[in-house]
Each structure stands twice: as structure tokens, then as C-alpha cells.
Amino acid sequence: MKKINKYISMVALGALTMVFNACTDECEREASPVQTDGITAYIDFNTPTSFAFLPDDEQSFEIKIGRQLTTEAATVHITAEGEKFNVPQTVEFAAGETEKSVKITFDIAIGTSASVKIGIEEGDTYIYGLTEQTIKVARDYTWVSAGSLTFSDPIFTGAEGELKVEKAKEGNNLYRIIEPYCEEGAGIHLQFTLDDNHNAVSLLPVGSLFDLGNGYQLYYVPEQYPNYCFFTNEGNSFNFGFLFTDNGSDLYVGNGSFVWSKEYPGK
User: Fold this and answer.
1) May I ask which residue range the UniProt record assigns to the signal sequence (predicted)?
2) Banded model confidence at residue 259, pLDDT cuts 50, 70, 90
3) Based on the domain organization, do 188 and 99 belong to the same domain?
């Protein structure tokens, strides 16, 4: 049996070699066409798809626009979809220039994000280049240390341990627990708000799915599911309930608690 298999393998290999050689001898691959008309502009392939900004950062970023043919000066026309963004409509290239930086400004509130789709107008594009890119910008709070807490989630993950707490410097009594459900370094935090007397108000976000970084999304809708979605406290001892899903439709019940053991603001 081994000899037969070896023979079959050798025959098959010989057949493949003959086909490959025949294709090499008889099938000549046509070269890709060279674009010789138009401005041949494109967006740099290394353009990031997202940017993060702090409150004091200038609300702007730059992207690079390139082109292939450089013998003459040219005007490249830019398209943009995004109400909160100011994108130049044209980019001017001098003769011989192959790359230009384009500054894009925006205006969004702290703690929010927005997206813009930037493109090269049809007729100015290079057929082998990137002709459009969607870019998301987020303007985050300045987070400062607010101590630590002992976290417990007996139903959803079984996790228990001491975690850091941070507060948004810009106000609104907004706090976050550092990475309660995701792996360390993933940067996904559980946010919540307190009132002026440091009592529990709400988990965040309300009414939308929030990726927890572990294959599940949190769904916190207290008006619709008050028995399952809640956030309460007695002093520095907090309890919370929420729904979670892994497919956006099937909902499961979760709850947890934490004791704010260090630097609780209500003391």
C-alpha cells in the first residue's frame, strides 16, 4: 500500500510539473495597464482610521494626498461626508510635487466621537490607489485617579478583585472602573455617574450596546427593564444590574457589586 501511494504521488507531482511548465511556456500574463491620463491622485495607504484627542488638544489632524504624474501643476478635488468636519475642497500640487499634507479640523463635544469619509473626486483618482477613507475621531475626558475598589461579578464572569477607579477631570461626576471585563491593556472601562451627594445615578451608556471586550455587549436600559437594570448604593457599597448579549438579540441577566475601599468621594 505504501508503494502504491508513493507511486501515485510521484505521478501526480509529474503531472503538476508538466502543467506548470506548459503554462509557463504558453501562457504569458498581461501586464497591468499604466494609467497615463488624469491627475492620478490617491490617499496615503498609511492614513489612520481613528484618532483620539484630549480636551486641550487642537481639534485637527492631517492626512496625506499623493499623485503619480508630476510633470505639471494640478488641482485635486476632495469630497467629504461628515457635518462636524471642515475638509478643504481642493489640494494644489505644484509641478513635480508628489505629496501634500491636508489639515482637517472638527468640532465635537468632550466625551463624544464622530466620523468623516474623505475621498478623491472621480476623475482625479489613481486606479491603483486608495480613493476614500473613513476616519473616526474621539474627544476623551482627562481622567485622574479616584482610588480603588473591590469588584465582584458572581454571575456574568465570576470575576473578583481590586480595580482602579478614575474620574473625569472636566466634571459631570463621571467615573470609570478600569478594565473590569476585558484583558489588561484592552482599554475598555465601565463608566458610571454619581449625583452631587455621591450617590449612584446610572451606568453608561444608557440604551445602546457597549462592547465589553470579552465577546459580549452590555445593554443597560433601566426604563425598559427596571428589574434587571439598576445602579444603587449604601455609602461606599454599590450594586448594579444589567443585561448582556453576544449576538445583539438574545439577552441575559447579569449583576455585580463593588466596595469603594480607597478615596471614596462620599466620605
Assistant:
1) 1-24
2) very high
3) no
